[in-house]
Amino acid sequence: MIEFNTMIEKAAKFGVNLSLEQLEMLDIYAEMLIDWNTRMNLTGIIDSDGIMTRHFEDSIAMLSAVSIEKNAKIIDVGTGAGFPGMVLKIVRPDIKLTLLDSLNKRILFLNELAQKIGLEVETLHLRAEEGGKMPKYREKFDIVCARAVANLRELSEYCLPYVKVGGKFVSMKGPNAADEVNSAKPAIGTLGGKLEKLDELEISDGSGRSIVVIDKVKATPPQFPRNSAKISKKPL
User: Fold this and answer.
1) Mean pLDDT in the chain?
2) How many C-beta atoms surround the C-beta of residue 104 within 10 A?
3) Interval 18-51: pLDDT, tens
4) What integer pLDDT is reported at residue 222 of this predicted model?
5) How far does CA 49 lie from the centroid of its chain?
6) What is the pLDDT of residue 148?
7) Percent of the chain beyond pLDDT 90?
8) Is 155 exposed, middle or buried (0-12, 13-18, 19+ CB in 10 A)?
9) Within 10 A of 187 (CB to CB), how many other CB atoms are there?
10) Which of 7, 31, 64, 183 is 20 to 30 A from 55 via CA?
């Protein structure tokens, strides 16, 4: 399914050395993604090179922008088909990973994938703003990641409540995200965050990728997150 040597090169570009076992896991991942995509819309990318580059390599790129401590607790908010979270778990099996998505069919896919490749993950069928209010999940994670699911002003309200003070929110955006980041700074501050950096990267097909790293410097005020209608109609 995937070309192992090609995938090794793509990962090495971002400082990751893939083992044969990890390559085999990614191979199963790609096969399942294509198979399940015939029955539900998981991804618009269904060729092997596209999966390796736009999903696997792109997810691995996050590791070049943020250092993840051993056994870190990570939640991937709006994970979809598991990017970047499940790829991070394959590369770093020590992390304690939670995958959150509002569509149960995606959660079913991720549960079967995790079982098939033998990795233990927690999956949550929840809306992001619901989980962010729950004491079990609120400010409990070292790293919260999300890949291009909303404008950063709105995304920060969905994600920063999950980050513990001293942790990080990592948002993976498209190219040229500087204006979006600047407009989101007041919202980030209101929610207890502070911009650490914006890294501009390029993956091997020439696509630009912006990785926004936000430090959680104080607790998120209890009124956040609001419900999704308020977040979208009146972003901070």
Assistant:
1) 96
2) 10
3) 999 999 999 999 999 999 999 999 999 989 999 9
4) 97
5) 20
6) 73
7) 97
8) buried
9) 21
10) 183
Q: Which pLDDT value is given to residue 149?
A: 72
Q: Give residue 121's region: left, alpha or beta (phi > 0; psi -120 to 50).
A: beta
**Run of H or E including 172:** strand 163-173
d(CA 192, CA 61): 26
Rounded Cα distance between 216 and 169, Å, is 7
Cβ-contact 106, 68 below 8 angstroms: no
Q: Is the peptide bond before 84 cis (omega within 30 degrees of 0)?
A: yes
The helix/strand/coil state of 26 is helix
**Beta strands 122-125; 96-101: pairing state:** parallel
**pLDDT given at position 199:** 96
For 207, counting Cβ atoms within 10 Å of its Cβ (0-12 exposed, 13-18 middle, 19+ buried), the class is middle
Domain ranges (residues) in the chain: 4-233
Amino acid, single-letter form, for residue 6: T
Local structure of residue 84 (DSSP, 8 states): T
Q: Which CATH class is domain 4-233?
A: alpha beta
Whole-structure pTM value: 0.97
Please give the span between the terminal C-alpha atoms of the chain, in angstroms, as a whole number.
Answer: 44
Reading the block at residue 189, the tokens are 């501050």
